[in-house]
What we know:
Distance between the termini: 114 Å
Structural class: alpha/beta
Protein name: Glycosyltransferase
Helix content: 55-70%
Mean pLDDT: 90
Shape: globular
Keywords: Membrane, Transmembrane, Transmembrane helix
Organism: Limnohabitans planktonicus II-D5
Amino acid sequence: xxxxxxxxxxxxxxxxxxxxxxxxxxxxxxxxxxxxxxxxxxxxxxxxxxxxxxxxxxxxxxxxxxxxxxxxxxxxxxxxxxxxxxxxxxxxxxxxxxxxxxxxxxxxxxxxxxxxxxxxxxxxxxxxxxxxxxxxxxxxxxxxxxxxxxxxxxxxxxxxxxxxxxxxxxxxxxxxxxxxxxxxxxxxxxxxxxxxxxxxxxxxxxxxxxxxxxxxxxxxxxxxxxxxxxxxxxxxxxxxxxxxxxxxxxxxxxxxxxxxxxxxxxxxxxxxxxxxxxxxxxxxxxxxxxxxxxxxxxxxxxxxxxxxxxxxxxxxxxxxxxxxxxxxxxxxxxxxxxxxxxxxxxxxxxxxxxxxxxxxxxxxxxxxxxxxxxxxxxxxxxxxxxxxxxxxxxxxxxxxxxxxxxxxxxxxxxxxxxxxxxxxxxxxxxxxxxxxxxxxxxxxxxxxxxxxxxxxxxxxxxxxxxxxxxxxxxxxxxxxxxxxxxxxxxxxxxxxxxxxxxxxxxxxxxxxxxxxxxxxxxxxxxxxxxxxxxxxxxxxxxxxxxxxxxxxxxxxxxxxxxxxxxxxxxxxxxx
Length: 575
C-alpha cells in the first residue's frame, strides 16, 4: 500500500541556498572554540593527558599504545583511536603548541560530521517515498533540487542544536563517536544509491566507533540499519541489497566484535537508577536537541501515514533507529549528554523533513521566537563584555568579579573585529529574513542556525579569555609553580586524572606516585578532599604540609602542597 506524502513543494520553493553563505556559516561554527584557548576541565584536559603520555613518554617508562595510561590508570572510555590521533599530531607539534596540534584531527572530525549529515539527508530525500506530491499540470519540485534544499535544511538544523556547540569543540572520544556515527548514517543512506561509497563508509565508521569506545553502539546501529536497508523495496534509484552486501556487513560486524574482544574494549555501564529519572532525561533531551526536536516530532506527525510500514520508508526509519538507539544508550548508562551527540544528525534529518509540511503561521512563529531569543543572547554577551572592559554597567562587572575574582580582562582587536562583523552579518540576515523575498523551504532554519553560530562565535571571541580562565587549569597550576618554583618532578596522591593532566601540561613536570621525598622530586601534591585518608601515610614518609591552594574559580577544588620535613639545625659542639 502506498501512503500519500504530506510534502507539497513547488519548484520555486527549492532554490539553492548560496554555497558561499553555507560554507562561511560552517567555517564560523567549526573553527572558533578550537583555537586560542587552553584545554578545559575535565574531559578535554584528561584526553590531552593520555595523548601526552603516548607522544612524550617519561624516559624509562614502557608506553603501551593499546593500553594508554594517565596517573597509572587506563582510560575508562577505552577510546584508543582518540588518543592515537592526538598523540601522532602532538609528535609533529613545536614546543608549546601541543594542545593546538592535538585538536587538528578533531577539527576535521567536526567538519566531516557536517558533510556526512548533508549528504545523508540528500540521499534520503532522493528516495521515492520521500518525494513531494506530483502536481496535475507539473511544476512540482524536481527530485535533485528538492533533495538539495532538504539537505541544506538538515545541515542548518544540526548547526542550530544547542547541545552541539560545546561538546563538539572538545578533544574527547565523544566527538569521534559523533563523527563516526554520522559517517555510519551516511554509509547506510548510500547503500542503495552508491554501493561502494556506502560499504567503505560503513566499514570505516563501525571500526572507528569500536576504537572510539562504543563497540556496542557500532553493532546496534550498523546491524539495525542494515536490516532496514534490506527491507527497502527496489526502485530505479535505489537497488535492493545483494547477498554480497549482507556478507560484507556481516564481516564488518565480526571484525568489530573481534577487535573489541582482542583489545578488551567491551564495557557495559548500566545505571538502573537512571531509568526512573524520567524528568532529567526529558529535560536533557529538551535543551540539548533544541530547536530540532520540535520539528522532528512535527515531521513524524505529518508523515504518520508512512509509519505503519516504516521499513519501506528509509527517510523515517533510519533516522528514527539512530535516535532510539542513542537515546536508549544515554538513558541506560546514566543520562549522558555526550552520548546524545550521536543522535543529533538523525534528529536534524527528521527536522529537515518537517520543512515541506510547515504552515506559514508556524514558520513565522519560529522566525520571531528565534529572532528574539538569539538577539537577546547576543546583546547579553556584548553587555557583559563591555562591563568587563569598562566597569559599566556595574552589576555585570560585579558578577564577573565575584565569579572570577583574579581575572584581568584583556582587549583583543582581532576578537572584537570578528565579533563586530558577525553581529553586523546577523543584523543583515534579520533584515533579509523579515523583508519580502521568494519562499524557500529551508528559510525557517536560517535564523536558528545563524543565531546559534553567532552566539557561539561571540562567546569564543569576546568571552574567550574569561571562559579560558574559568575552565582552564592554567591559573591553578601557576599558583602551584609559584609555591614550588621550577621543578622537574612532583609526587602525587589522591588527585584526579584531569588534575594530573593539568600538572603535566601546564606545570611541565613529571608525576610520580607517593613515596619518600627524593632530591629531584621534593614536592607532594594532594587533593584536599582525599587528605584525611592519606594523612597518616604522608606523615610516616617524612612529608610536612607547606601550604594550601584553591582553584580561583572553584572554591571546592584545593591542593595541599607538602615538602620534606626540614632537618633540625646543627648545634655546634663545644670543645
